[in-house]
Write a structure and sequence with these properties.
Number of strands: 4
Distance between the termini: 10 Å
Protein name: Xylose transport system permease protein XylH
Strand content: under 5%
GO cellular component, one term: plasma membrane
Helix content: over 70%
Main location: membrane
Number of domains: 2
Order of helices and strands: EHHHHHEHHEHHHHHEHHH
Largest sheet: 2 strands, parallel
Structural class: mainly alpha
Membrane topology: Multi-pass membrane protein
Radius of gyration: 21 Å
Shape: globular
CATH class of the largest domain: Mainly Alpha
InterPro entries: ABC_transp_permease
Length: about 400
């Protein structure tokens, strides 16, 4: 059904109930655990830990949503994290590399692994499920071979600060953290207004004024409240800055570039994309190179968080990332999904983990609850798309 003009003759776009539904679910989950934990969920220290402990999920979900939009899946990211983490630790403790060189090496190795898998998917034509399943076994075994001693610890302080460190603080409250939050709000408002102006200029459907203003106001309040909590903790965590840069960069990549539009086109209708001149092989190849690059970054973050590398690292990371993407609104068939939605899905998973841990819920029941949340999110999205059809 085409968009209908409003009372003033302007084209209006229906509110994305799926997007608002996920945001509402996140708000309800936060409120529920805030009540059940007696207010402990949103203690400043717990909020900081929420981002530090779940940063790897956000990073992997950003890459995974691009893979899933293109119509693929990647089951190897957890094993890639283990292998790259082992290489990072060895490069500093055994090969004498400085921490920044180890980070660079990790990103390069992750991208090379992604290129290896992307080659088989894009140019040989083997389904991504099979290629990455093989990769899951290969790189898990590689991690075990590299870490024959089981563990490498004692990593340099600047390296571990990537995950656990904070920006220089000005005191309590930390004015730098509040300033960063204010700048983020200004950037958000400018970006949203610019996007709306572009839609108006092109005479495309636009969201109603009321819901548009409400959405921005809610986002600004959430950002400033988060920065307020962090300002009364240890300050702005470095990892939060890294995550914010990734969200902005990849949102721009998917929404504002030809490459991003090609990813959506391939996932929506591969044959139509090929007939339109999209170089599908190279797009698929670069999608997996990017996934490997972000897996390398997730390895750096998780290794820095743990303070060392272990062969069992990354276990279940691929499931967390895939769950976050589908909770965030991506379609199993491909062609649908957003970076922001994947991040919201990762936060839902993180809040569930944090809240259930504070309540001392058994780990087995935590898995059951997260599985039911994933099923409910996918079922809701399926019913919405079926109703639209």
């Amino acid at each position: 059904m085409p968009p209908q003009p409003g009372r003033n003759g302007k084209k209006r776009r229906r509110v994305d109930l799926r997007q608002y539904g996920i945001l509402g679910a996140l708000a309800v989950i936060i409120l529920l655990f805030q009540i059940l934990t007696g207010g402990r969920l949103l203690y400043p220290g717990n909020v900081s830990n929420l981002f530090q402990q779940n940063a790897y999920v956000v990073i992997l979900a950003i890459g995974m949503v691009m893979v899933i939009i293109a119509g693929h899946i990647d089951l190897s990211v957890g094993s890639v994290v283990a292998t790259v983490g082992a290489i990072a630790a060895l490069s500093m403790n055994s090969w004498g590399l400085p921490w920044w060189a180890a980070v660079t090496l990790s990103l390069v190795v992750g991208a090379l692994i992604g290129a290896w898998q992307g080659f088989w998917v894009a140019f040989v034509g083997i389904p991504a499920f099979i290629v990455t399943l093989a990769g899951m076994l290969v790189f898990r075994g590689t991690a075990l071979i590299l870490l024959t001693g089981g563990t490498i610890s004692g990593l340099p302080r600047p390296y571990t600060a990537i995950s656990s460190g904070t920006l220089p603080s000005t005191g309590t409250p930390d004015l730098m953290t509040l300033g960063i939050g204010a700048l983020a709000c200004v950037a958000l408002v400018v970006q949203q207004l610019k996007g709306r102006a572009d839609l108006r200029r092109l005479d495309l459907p636009r969201e109603r004024n009321g819901s548009f203003v409400f959405k921005i106001a809610l986002a600004v309040i959430a950002i400033m409240y988060l920065c307020y909590l962090l300002a009364y903790s240890r300050g702005m965590p470095i990892i939060v800055v890294i995550l914010a840069v990734l969200v902005l960069a990849y949102s721009f990549l998917l929404n504002r570039t030809v490459f991003g539009r090609h990813i959506y086109a391939m996932g929506g209708n591969l044959n139509a994309a090929m007939m339109s001149g999209v170089k599908t092989r190279w797009v698929n190849f670069l999608v997996f190179v990017n996934m490997g690059f972000l897996a390398g970054l997730a390895a750096v973050v998780s290794t820095a968080r743990a303070g060392g590398a272990v062969a069992s690292a990354g276990g279940g990371f691929e499931l967390d990332a895939i769950a976050a993407v589908f909770i965030g609104g991506a379609s199993v068939q491909g062609g649908v999904g957003t970076v922001v939605g994947a991040v919201i899905g990762a936060l839902v998973m993180g809040v569930l983990n944090q809240g259930l841990s504070i309540l001392s819920v058994d780990a087995a029941w935590q898995q059951v609850i997260k599985g039911l949340v994933l099923l409910a999110a996918v079922a809701f999205g399926f019913s919405r798309r079926k109703g639209a059809r």
